[in-house]
UniProtKB/TrEMBL annotation:
This is Uncharacterized protein. The chain crosses the membrane at residues 31-54, 66-85. Residues 109-135 are annotated as: Disordered. Keywords: Membrane, Transmembrane, Transmembrane helix. It comes from the Bacteria.
Length: 135
């Protein structure tokens, strides 16, 4: 039972290579993924630093600066989270789409009757059910 599975896996890898799907670990995608993670971390750090800065003084100008730093941190965390999510899901969804395409192709091959059926023998046709529904 391992031989058909290995043959199927090798065929899948070969057909995946034929689709010429770009490598999800390419340099540009990795750069954006790391930048997103860095922005998320920097946003969390800026938000955590802004809170004590805003509460450590009674000067409204210093508090305004700390609030601006905190809001910048929130914006950086949101943008970083979006970048990280987008580039981390891209690799997974590319593989998933290729896998779905492969599985649908195999299903089509199983459901399609052979092209050259022997003459004189009828093809297996599905007849409509005329009796009561099975229970």
């Amino acid at each position: 039972m391992t031989a058909p599975y290995e043959a199927r896996a090798e065929r899948f890898v070969r057909e995946l290579a034929e689709l010429k799907i770009p490598d999800p670990a390419a340099a540009r995608a990795t750069l954006w993924l790391r930048l997103g993670g860095l922005l998320m971390a920097a946003g969390l750090v800026l938000g955590a630093l802004a809170f004590p800065l805003a509460h450590a003084t009674d000067n409204s100008l210093a508090q305004g600066d700390a609030l601006a730093i905190g809001l910048g941190g929130i914006a950086a965390a949101v943008v970083g989270g979006a970048l990280f999510l987008r580039y981390s899901l891209t690799g997974f969804l590319r593989f998933w789409l290729a896998r779905q395409s492969y599985d649908l192709d195999r299903l089509g091959e199983r459901l399609t009757p052979p092209a050259s059926a022997p003459q004189g023998e009828p093809r297996h046709a599905v007849t409509p059910h005329t009796g009561p529904a099975p229970r």
